[in-house]
Amino acid sequence: MALERLGQKLRTLRLRRGLSQIKLGLALGYANGSYMSQIETRKQKPIAEFVLKVADYFGVSTDDLWRDEREV
Predict the structure, then answer these.
(1) Domains and CATH numbers, the chain
(2) Would the pTM count as exceeding 0.70?
């Protein structure tokens, strides 16, 4: 599990739904979109709880998010 592409996958899923980073952040229970931005730009590594929230919200598996070789 390399996590090189998790931020890219998050951005792809977010844009498919037409969501801003702020709207996604609020939907996932965060105060704003700054955490989304940090994950998408690889400035911060996500915690497992975040990946679970994203997987549930978008209806994808955690493996799809964690594993670089898998697509969303």
Answers:
(1) 6-66 (1.10.260.40)
(2) yes
